[in-house]
Automatic annotation (TrEMBL):
Name of the protein: Secreted protein
Domain of life: Bacteria
Biased composition (Low complexity): 53-71
Location of region: Disordered: 50-83
Amino acid sequence: MAVLAWLLIPLFAVVGAAIWGSWASRNKTIGDVAELAGYARFRDAMERSHTVTAGTSTGSAPAAAASASALPEREAAPATTTG
């Protein structure tokens, strides 16, 4: 009976390795397509947010107002002279 137990240990290891190998080599392209599409939407949104200028906007009015209030323009620092 002890010999049977020692033979079952490698058998379970082989079965576990086969299950893990089939899981690791599964087809991952289905998730990649959706992920790449999401990344493209993110990139487009970031480009739109950078194209908003002080006088014009390329998006809707609420989006332009939100981006304008989120990033205030910096004022020029007064020039100081030493001497």
